[in-house]
């Protein structure tokens, strides 16, 4: 849906952008073109990331989504710089906008289409915890805001004749787009370096472990990381030396089950340790 809708919107904006001579519309067309590229990257990355682990990739293919999100972010930054350059050129060499009402109509059509698709993609991303789809939904929603911004600026230009507003709005949109890209980068890039889960996510996992504190001595070496749509959690669990292996294993199973209730695709590894003699004494 994202690829098809973006293809249609890009074509529409490019044609109308050249007809009207509006740098804001052309900037929006470039933005939508990057959304299309991002949708295509997301399409393939989601398919690859869902492949099961194999001999060459024993931890699965989840990080392809983080690579995808990082590439999308770089594309957005490049587009933002290009848009600002074009807008400054238009400020120095102003050009009158033709057929502004056509431009307004196209911007509104694009905003409505991308709003509907972004909501569908966003809901699916939340269900699957897909980084690539989350970033794609964000791209689409950003396009909605920028399209509405361009429509409003064209409306004001049509009423007042202030053509300088067109490139100024273009610069504002470019900065907004780059700011959104920076937020996306903070989500997509850290997992490539095996950064830990967020504080709230770790807190929810720790609460699960601590809910069983009456059945173990203590736990340590708690670690988390994310790979695409999957979370990895591991820690050492110290149990009484009197506890038999079957009972200890059942305890681990219950902890894992509760963590999976919070993170459906989590991989949980619990290393059991017998109670230390020094601690017991």
Q: Using the coordinates above, name the CATH class of the largest domain.
A: Mainly Alpha
The residue ranges in which pLDDT falls below 50 over 5 or more consecutive positions are none
Structural class: mainly alpha
Count every beta strand, where a strand is a DSSP E run of 2 or more residues. 3
Give the count of helical stretches.
Answer: 9
Helix content: 55-70%
Order of helices and strands: HHHHHHHEEHEH
Describe the sheet with the most strands. Answer: 3 strands, mixed
Shape label: elongated
CATH topology of the largest domain: Alpha-lytic protease prodomain-like
Radius of gyration: 25 Å
How far is it from the N-terminal to the C-terminal residue, by CA?
A: 64 Å
- Provide the CATH superfamily of the largest domain: Cation efflux protein transmembrane domain
User: In percent, how much strand structure appears in the residues?
Assistant: 5-15%
Structure description:
This protein is mainly alpha-helical and 281 residues long. The chain folds into two domains: 2-193, Cation efflux protein transmembrane domain (Alpha-lytic protease prodomain-like); 199-280, Alpha-Beta Plaits (2-Layer Sandwich). Helices cover 69% and strands 10% of the residues. It is built from nine helices and three strands. The chain has helices at residues 2-20, 23-49, 63-92, 100-128, 131-160, 165-188, 199-210, 245-262, 277-280; strands spanning 218-227, 230-239, 267-274. Strands 1-2-3 form a three-stranded mixed β-sheet. Strand 2, helix 8 (245-262) and strand 3 (267-274) form a beta-alpha-beta unit. Helix 2 packs parallel to helix 6 (165-188). The mean pLDDT is 83.
């Amino acid at each position: 849906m994202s690829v098809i809708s973006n293809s249609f919107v890009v074509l529409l904006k490019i044609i109308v952008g050249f007809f009207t001579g509006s740098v804001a519309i052309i900037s929006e067309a470039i933005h939508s073109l990057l959304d299309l590229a991002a949708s295509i990257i997301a399409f393939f990355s989601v398919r690859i990331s869902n492949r099961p682990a194999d001999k060459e990739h024993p931890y699965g293919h989840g990080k392809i989504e983080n690579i995808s999100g990082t590439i999308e972010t770089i594309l957005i930054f490049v587009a933002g710089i290009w848009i600002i350059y074009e807008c400054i050129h238009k400020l120095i060499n102003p050009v009158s906008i033709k057929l502004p009402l056509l431009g307004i109509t196209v911007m509104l059509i694009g905003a409505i289409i991308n709003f509907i698709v972004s909501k569908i993609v966003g809901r699916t991303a939340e269900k699957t915890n897909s980084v690539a789809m989350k970033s794609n939904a964000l791209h689409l929603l950003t396009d909605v805001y920028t399209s509405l911004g361009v429509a409003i600026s064209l409306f004001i230009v049509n009423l007042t004749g202030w053509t300088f507003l067109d490139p100024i709005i273009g610069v504002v949109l470019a900065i907004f787009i780059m700011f959104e890209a920076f937020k996306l980068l903070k989500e997509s890039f850290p997992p490539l370096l095996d950064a830990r889960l967020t504080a709230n996510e770790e807190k929810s996992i720790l609460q699960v472990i601590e809910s069983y504190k009456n059945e173990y001595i203590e736990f340590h070496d708690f670690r988390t990381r994310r790979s695409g749509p999957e979370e990895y959690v591991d820690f050492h669990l110290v149990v009484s030396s009197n506890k038999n292996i079957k009972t200890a294993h059942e305890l681990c199973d219950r902890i894992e089950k509760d963590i999976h209730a919070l993170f459906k695709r989590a991989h949980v590894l619990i290393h059991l340790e017998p109670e230390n003699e020094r601690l017991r004494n």
